[in-house]
Write a structure and sequence with these properties.
The protein has 367 residues and is mostly beta strands. It is 2% helix and 53% strand. The protein is globular. The N and C termini lie far apart (54 Å). The relative contact order is 0.14.
Amino acid sequence: MLSLLARDATGQVTAPDSAAPADTSGPPLTISGFVTASYTYSTQNTRDAVAGRFYDRFHDQVMLNAAKVVLERPVRTDRFDAGVRADFLFGQDAKVTQSLGLDLGDNGDLTQAFVTLNIPAGVGRYVQFKAGKLATLMGIEVIEDVVNPNLSVANQFVYLENFTNTGLRVDVKPSAAIDFELAVFNGWDVVRDNNTQKSFMGRIGITPTGRTVIGLLGYYGAEQANGTSKRSGGEIVVTQKLGPKATVYLQGDYGEEQDLPSPGSKARWWGLGAWGTYDVTPVLGIAVRGDYINDEDGTRTSGVFGFPPNAGQKFGSGTVTLNIKRWQHVLVRPELRYDRSSLAVFGDPATPSKDQVTFALGTSYMF
């Protein structure tokens, strides 16, 4: 008779799977986060402001950028399961990540808060339903600065993407090579909708090899208060590993919006970005980035984050960042960045410049 007993790695007899009690436990609630402080010096500043910048928008000041705490109970994908996640952000970064309709004060933000329901669909396959406030599906870079290749964020992150979606999302993983997501939400960076129309965003991810990931994304919806003028666009993101130490990222964006900058017209914008990372040693990495944006009508940049009112500009930046991990749980990041615009938008309004150079240093502790 064929034995129903099995042996573990030590040779001890174990009960067959059919005799084992059902595993009703799940992943425990975890607490994680980070603290980031930084200093930025700009050669073309307006008093204490750095035009066109996001987290690093203050000149010659030490900033308490972020004290972030994440509470999460992740889901198991191999069974029917439920999970929850909440991301609390405190510090000077919170003012620029906040969504309209959720007021935690200038120095506080709830960047994510959502529930996940998982339906298993086979080994490594699942369908997940998520409800609440979630980070956008767009872009290479994310709200958490310690995850990004560089200390500062690219112009595409600031001007061509949204940060969060509040609504419903379904994530499907039908195979190891494909995943796709569809979100229905109130609008770009709003918790309470400013009109009666919902917005949509969809993404498909393709992994043709273990080293290559391609993401294709599209969005559509009414973002103006009138509820009729539509914003639409798309994005492509490619991640290519060149070996165990080097990775290249590419991102292209295109968008347009009706009735901007005036009724009956259509605003258009597009951008390109490239990142490269290389681990010189286990404790030292280097990240380089270049980006370029054509804001044809000024609708994405006019009067935004220190840029003066304008009817359109072409601008870009080049950035080099060292990622020093010599201390446990600590990331130290010196950075050099050069910005250039087709307009004189940097520095003193009396003597503006088309160029800007900034030096920055950031330090983060992760737990």
